[in-house]
């Protein structure tokens, strides 16, 4: 299907927007009026610019507060429309979006609205222009798409049809199945936006919190399938108002929008396209280790946690450290200690990379010697390298043994997402890896709020937590690898005895409160182990190491089907980390 | 009255918070539980720390979901309470805030709630602790303060009283006059917060958008006067949850909170304290002019606008430029061209500075020679120096003439407020200068949203626009001085003919739209003049100069009682400025 996007969805000036939209591979654009008004180019040159970029101008928008008005105002509104028709001729646009009237002075009655819209359509027809009438969710009288359709049917003019917008329909909780009652040729245009579920005024929700399909909570693809069933053959067009997108990089946002439409098409086409090759587990996590001259190294922490170095890469400065099913690569290529890559077990690494590439993820070039294992990798929007592994990679390191130990594997990794690009990260991990969102949280931090979203593969073999980088004095955006074990108290006892300096200290006040809320083992306090209990009785024991560079480790034990991440305790950790507990 | 603040209101760790709160001059604190839990100090040391800083611990909070529960849960809740009572003994706190239950499992009935709260009060009494019961605006059964009072009256225990919170009362639209029906000695505590009027879920509104009294739209001082009429004699205590405050400087926020309580007391005491000496006009605006070696200077723009240099300061590198009633000082002390100070005509400069100082504004030291005029000045939170002038300052410059011209005076100045400190700026200009908020707006900018608030003295002789600095690639936080005139078209004609390079170019597309909306003089387009019309028929003509450093000028003409600032045209200006139109 043709793909389009409204210029208001991305940041920048109109010419910057057009270039970014074309570069992302869109077929067309909706020209948003304010972008045009502020542009120094005359409409003819904007038309030429779009054509040179291979973009069609699919819609001009919005034309507001036209219908259901008294006669004197109608005359003024028609005059206003004639100006816009002339502009559209210069621009080479033949479809005008008319939003349902929101003015408090509007006069009621479907007959009046239909008559005035018919008049508008007649004037438009003289110039070969068509009118797409849209029910705004906060329209004064008309705010449901089926009401807009009743009026358009009454008006009964070939140049008058509907614009459907997923936000306006789904934000009101309207059932989109009614769309199938509308003849496809009367649906002149389809605008798509998703949104998180928020309890707020719908106008503010729409103006600030829309996002691309797949980034929010609406069933946008379900709505699109009803529109296709109705016989709609026009473009899928993104129209998003989002405070973060407004400040984000123009090209990056445009590419993210294109990714959302490709993922939406994947969902619609079902088996027709490659679906995500869902990873079956963590193959490894790769950490850049710091300069040995500068303070503590990750390798010291790993050794303390019971990991052993079991192999070295034949040609790169990379070591394999193992314990139980947990495999960590330490990369000594320099830079601050940080989590740089994640390896995922995949039944079809080649297919996984191909799928990621179809979703506009950059495939990473891998320089390798002929005898080395093939590694397929793409870059996530947060910069993390994602490797798809079939197991052969281990042969590079020729590990000579298994390392039994307390740690059984990697439970989850927590990645810091760049500010303004949280939604992009979620869409990537959702569409490329097939992870499912588990919930999102805002956690108090001494210098702000930490936004956090958890995602997991079906079954939970791969879990990731995406955190938004905080801002604050002396702040470090931290990442961590959480390691699973079967007996956290035993791990804690050993670490407390042998490596007490590796553990993040937990304040006694935390345990006073914990003991007020739950009947817990007093040894938790002694060992500095944190505790959480979910509503179904599942329990979570966990502890943290100190931070090295940007990285720390968590050790966790899940009991009785606990599915969370100890979020209730995260503010304690954040405060201790900020207080210099490291 | 004693002044207190909840530790949650400011950023940082608990010990940082206590130090900042004491430094701002508060008498006491409410200890917010999460701050204590994350603190490495035991309660005894927190008590000592507060005492050393001269702070009393006025309240411990919150204790949640206690009342209206089944018997088994009551036993667990009482056990939980006993833990908190022991903690409070160690902390030296004798007042516990109990919020009305929000759990979906709560059991209804005032008798049950009263009986359980009485039991809690009895247990508390054994340890000399009192319970302040608060109706949360989103409490499951109890969410109105008079309902909480009915239950407390039923419970009838001397250790059980109420906590009143202005947010919970005013956010629901409850009439605070009912407070006068509550005996003052049963109001154990008073928490104050203001908030902007927002159409959103009350819980989200409360958790993210509260602000200090005088920064929002609630009549907080009206509520306080009812509480005082009821006979309340406890502290005024701020309790604010605000996303910006969470990220702002701890000491600065604490000082801002103290300013809000002092201003609130001023309002309550009426004539008992100095009221703002409201300025009667702009005496001058002072601009730092750039280095003559680097590009265009402000003096060139002023000369083009018809200003004349009429004087030079005897001892400082400062020139006076005049036209009509507009006086601008150009300061050649170096740095980028910027608006650095505003002089305000004041009937009592000494009193104005004393009032500003009572509101914690730093008074600026002025080095001057004995024969020079006295200048009283304070620093605004945004760094602008505010001078209070009685007219004698002009004698320093010995201006030898009046400069008749097209410009009649300064209409308004637009100042950029630092990110996270928008509310602080509003409170300063409101409480120190007596300006009144006129409205706030969010305007689209090519790289974000510009938040803008207009304020004016009664009568409009002094008008200011506060803008939040945007972020974005290559962004400059701009300031401007708007100059008034009686015939903007004449000014525009002269400038277009004589100095076309000084004018910000306005796109032709703007005029196509303007002519679609209004029947306007076609000369507007030719001259690049912008136009706005308000709902009452008032009209506004304006134009902009190019930017020098951080500063540009606007020239405006108000017709027919127009009170706005041409906000509808600001996005056009912002886009042209971003596009390099300068």
Which helices and strands occur, and which strands form pairs?
The structure is a homodimer of 582-residue chains.
Chain A (H helix, E strand, L loop, with lengths): L2 E4 L7 H10 L4 E5 H5 L5 H10 L3 E8 L7 H21 L3 E5 L10 H17 L3 E5 L10 H11 L4 E6 H5 L16 E6 L9 H8 L10 H10 L6 E3 L4 H5 L2 H20 L11 E8 L9 H7 L3 E5 L5 E6 L2 E6 L6 E8 L3 H10 L17 E4 L5 E5 L17 E11 L4 H10 L4 E10 L2 E9 L6 E6 L10 E7 L2 H11 L9 H10 L5 H5 L2 E4 L5 E6 L6 E9 L10 H12 L1
Parallel strand pairs in A: 1-2, 1-8, 2-3, 3-4, 4-5, 5-6, 6-7, 7-8, 9-12, 13-15, 16-19, 20-23
Antiparallel strand pairs in A: 9-13, 10-11, 11-12, 14-15, 16-20, 17-18, 18-19, 21-22, 22-23
Helix pairs in contact in A: 1-11, 3-4, 4-5, 5-6, 9-11, 11-14
Summarize the structure.
Chain A is 32% helix and 25% strand.
């Amino acid at each position: 299907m043709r793909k389009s996007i409204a210029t208001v969805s991305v940041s920048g000036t109109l010419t910057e927007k057009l270039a970014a939209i074309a570069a992302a591979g869109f077929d067309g654009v909706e020209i948003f009026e304010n972008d045009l008004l502020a542009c120094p180019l005359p409409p003819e040159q904007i038309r030429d610019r779009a054509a040179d970029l291979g973009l069609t101008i699919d819609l001009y928008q919005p034309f507001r507060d036209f219908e259901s008005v008294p006669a004197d105002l109608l005359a003024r509104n028609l005059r206003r429309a004639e100006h816009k028709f002339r502009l559209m001729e210069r621009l080479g646009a033949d479809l005008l979006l008319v939003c349902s009237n929101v003015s408090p002075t509007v006069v009621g009655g479907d007959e009046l609205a239909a008559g005035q819209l018919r008049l508008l359509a007649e004037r438009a027809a003289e110039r070969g222009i068509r009118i797409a009438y849209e029910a705004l969710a906060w329209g004064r009288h008309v705010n449901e798409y089926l009401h807009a359709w009743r009026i358009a049917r009454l008006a009964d003019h070939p140049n008058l049809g509907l614009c459907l917008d997923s936000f306006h329909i789904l934000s009101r909780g309207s059932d989109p199945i009614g769309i199938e009652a509308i003849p496809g040729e009367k649906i002149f245009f389809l605008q798509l936006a998703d949104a998180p579920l928020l309890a707020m005024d719908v106008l503010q929700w729409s103006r600030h919190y829309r996002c691309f399909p797949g980034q929010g909570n609406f069933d946008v693809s379900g709505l699109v399938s009803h529109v296709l069933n109705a016989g709609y053959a026009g473009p899928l067009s993104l129209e998003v108002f989002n405070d973060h997108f407004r400040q984000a990089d123009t090209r990056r946002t445009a590419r993210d929008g294109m990714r959302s439409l490709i993922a939406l098409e994947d969902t619609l086409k079902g088996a027709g396209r490659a679906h995500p090759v869902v990873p079956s587990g963590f193959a490894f996590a790769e950490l850049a280790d710091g300069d040995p001259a500068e303070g503590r190294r990750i390798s010291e922490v790993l050794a303390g946690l019971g990991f052993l170095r079991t192999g070295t890469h034949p040609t790169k400065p990379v070591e394999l450290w193992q314990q139980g099913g947990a495999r960590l690569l330490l990369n000594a290529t320099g830079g601050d200690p940080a989590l740089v890559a994640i390896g995922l077990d995949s039944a079809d690494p080649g297919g996984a990379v191909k799928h990621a590439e179809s979703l506009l993820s950059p495939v990473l070039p891998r320089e390798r010697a002929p005898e080395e294992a093939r590694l397929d990798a793409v870059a996530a929007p947060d910069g993390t390298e994602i490797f798809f592994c079939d197991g052969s990679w281990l042969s590079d390191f020729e590990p000579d043994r298994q390392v039994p130990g307390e740690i059984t594997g990697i439970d989850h990794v927590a990645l810091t997402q760049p500010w303004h690009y949280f939604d992009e990260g979620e869409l990537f991990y959702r569409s490329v890896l097939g992870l499912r969102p588990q919930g999102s949280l805002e956690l108090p931090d001494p210098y702000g709020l930490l936004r956090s979203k958890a995602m997991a593969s079906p079954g939970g073999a791969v879990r990731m937590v995406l955190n938004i980088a905080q801002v604050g004095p002396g702040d470090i955006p931290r990442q961590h690898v959480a390691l699973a074990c079967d007996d956290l108290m035993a791990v804690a006892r050993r670490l407390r005895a042998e490596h007490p300096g590796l553990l993040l200290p937990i304040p006694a006040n935390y345990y006073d409160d914990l003991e007020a809320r739950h009947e817990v083992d007093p040894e938790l306090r002694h060992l500095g182990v944190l505790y959480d209990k979910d509503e179904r009785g599942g329990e979570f024991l966990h502890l943290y190491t100190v931070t090295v560079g940007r990285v720390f480790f968590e050790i966790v034990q899940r009991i009785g089907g606990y599915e969370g991440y100890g979020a209730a305790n995260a503010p304690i950790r954040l405060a201790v980390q900020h207080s210099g507990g490291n």
